[in-house]
TrEMBL record:
EC number: 2.7.13.3
Catalytic reactions on record: ATP + protein L-histidine = ADP + protein N-phospho-L-histidine
UniProt signal peptide: none
Annotated TM spans: 22-43, 55-75, 81-105, 117-138, 158-179
Keywords: ATP-binding, Kinase, Membrane, Nucleotide-binding, Phosphoprotein, Transferase, Transmembrane, Transmembrane helix, Two-component regulatory system
Protein name: histidine kinase
GO MF entries: kinase activity
Length: 416
């Protein structure tokens, strides 16, 4: 509804502008057609009980010129100088200065920095117009209209009236210009104030988000970091104790537990460093990447997990870091989910990444209804879907033909 209403509002505004221009044209042309009698020789005026005004051929020509000059009001906003020029021509002829004031008004709105120049020229032109009417044969429309007196019998009081009308006209233009500029300044101030409010709201939201990130970072560092540190120490002690046995498999398992604990601790530190705003001087750890798949699969196999992997990655140096990291984390979470819910079962991993094919990750494991005792928050699958959606990818997760399948497709994006 809003989109459909906007063209209608624009058409209504356009019709309103044209209507105002037509109204100004009609009123101004009628005024100047009457003011033609100000020009000597344009009309024959007679006073007395039956005053008459007979327009001459010269008067008809001047009236036509006045109508043509008033058509410039249609471009008064875009080209105010055209209206000023047309109004100046009518002033030079001696008809009136009304059209010139219309053009001056829009010129002052269009070029506010030239107000002193435009204002002084306007006052001087109107003053010369009034003086010419007072001391020459020009003028007489007021006297003939209100006193039935032709040029020769006009009273000097009408010259004073013409001067008063000129002063009031100039004052009206000045007042309208001041009012319009005040409205424009108020509108600009409102826009600026709205922008500043939006900027302040955005900054407040950013500060609130950073505060929440730092709170999460503290909780991770103090809670999970502490527990992982304890696990890493215990795993080291377990590895040292297992080294005294004759079972090499037990020693390798202990070593794997220690490595995984250390890797998890480094991941937590990486996340904490990314969340905190004061971590600029901390050590920058390498970002997650498909380059780390080989090491991850090797560690899982060393820990006794059976993983059948088929990995084909082409053009990894061209892949966007965002897609690269998302793909690695999806593989990591999918394998973790498979190992946790299907202990002892073989996990099948397929990774195919290439610029012309995109990135495809598929993890399968048999459905084994065995309780592992490992706590699960149920957010791993949701995280996979969210990571895929963050890079405009798709994810299908669920049981199929007796197996649990995680199938994710990500679009290829070149590194910027």
């Amino acid at each position: 509804m809003t989109v459909a209403a906007r063209p209608a509002l624009r058409r209504f505004a356009r019709v309103g502008r044209v209507g105002r221009s037509v109204l100004i044209l009609v009123l101004g042309a009628l005024c100047d057609m009457y003011c033609v009698i100000n020009v000597p020789g344009a009309a024959t005026l007679t006073g007395g009980d039956e005053p008459q005004a007979q327009i001459t051929r010269l008067g008809v020509m001047i009236a036509l010129v006045a109508i043509a000059c008033w058509t410039t009001v249609f471009v008064r906003v875009r080209i105010p100088i055209a209206v000023v020029a047309a109004g100046g021509l009518l002033m030079l002829v001696g008809v009136s200065y009304v059209l010139a004031l219309v053009g001056v008004y829009h010129a002052l709105i269009r070029w506010p920095r030239r107000t002193p120049l435009i204002g002084s020229l306007t006052v001087a032109a109107v003053a010369l117009f009034v003086l010419r009417e007072a001391f020459t044969a020009w003028g007489g429309a007021l006297a003939w209209t209100f006193d039935n007196a032709p040029y020769t019998d006009a009273s000097p009081v009408w010259n004073v009236a013409a001067a008063v009308i000129a002063v009031l006209s100039l004052g009206l233009v000045a007042g309208l210009v001041a009012y319009r500029r005040a409205r424009i300044e108020a509108s600009v101030s409102r826009v600026r104030a709205d922008f500043e409010h939006e900027r302040a709201d955005a900054l407040d939201m950013q500060v609130a988000r950073q505060a929440e990130r730092e709170r999460i970072a503290r909780d991770l560092h103090d809670g999970l970091g502490h527990r992982l540190s304890s696990v890493a120490l215990a795993a080291g002690a377990f590895e040292a104790q297992a080294g005294t046995t004759v079972d090499p498999a037990l020693t390798e398992w202990a070593r794997t537990v220690r490595r995984q604990a250390h890797a998890a601790l480094e991941d937590v530190r990486d996340v904490v460093g990314g969340l905190r705003s004061d971590a600029a001087g901390d050590e920058v750890l390498p970002p997650a990447s498909l380059r780390g798949l080989a090491a991850m699969i090797s560690e899982l196999r060393a820990g006794g997990h059976r993983v059948d992997a088929y990995v084909v990655v082409e053009g990894i140096e061209r892949l966007s870091p965002a897609v690269d990291a998302a793909a690695f984390r999806i593989v990591q979470e999918s394998l973790t989910n498979a190992i946790k819910h299907a202990p002892g079962a073989t996990v099948s991993l397929t990774v195919d990444a290439a610029p012309d094919r995109g990135v495809r990750v598929r993890v399968e494991n048999a459905l084994v209804p065995v309780a592992t005792g490992v706590p699960s928050g149920g957010r791993g699958l949701l995280g996979i879907r969210e990571r895929a959606a963050s890079v405009d990818g798709t994810a299908w997760i669920g049981p199929h033909a007796g197996r649990f399948v995680t199938d994710v497709s990500l679009p290829w994006r070149d590194r910027p």
